[in-house]
Amino acid sequence: MVNTDGSPSLINLTGVDVDYRVVGTDKEILDHWLPWVHKFIGNAKVWLLGTHHGVESKYLAQYLAEYTFRFNRRHDPNSLFSRALFACVVANPARSGTLFR
Asked: 48, 68 in Cβ contact below 8 A?
């Protein structure tokens, strides 16, 4: 069962048996079915526009990946730096031309 706010992006899921149901536009119903989705999107918009100015659409996935990383670790902000440092240490080297495709 996929409960959605009516976004057409979930209608044609492939490889998944989906019972697609639009919950509606009633705020109380949406908050019950999708409580964190709307908070995440609203906070991501504010963070993106408030922190990064002139965001290009081709880099939007990288910006949203950073926000998702921070959002998922929001209850432990003291470990953000050590986790990022560890990720840099264990990552394979990459040429600058391959970072933004």
From this structure: no
Cα gap 80→87, rounded to integer Å: 11
CB 5 within 8 A of CB 25: yes
Stated length of the chain: 101
- Name residues whose C-beta falls within 8 Å of residue 4's C-beta, 6 or more positions apart in sequence: 10, 20, 21, 22, 23, 34
Q: Which residues of 11-49 are buried (b: 16+ CB within 10 A; e: fewer)?
A: eeeeeeeeeeeeeeeeeeebeeebeeeeebeeebeebbe
Q: What's the pTM value of the predicted model, to 2 decimals?
A: 0.44
Q: Looking at the chain, which runs of residues are DSSP E strands?
A: 2-4, 20-22
Q: Which residue has the tokens 């264990």?
A: 90
The pLDDT tens digits for 29-61 are 767 767 777 778 888 888 887 877 777 888 888
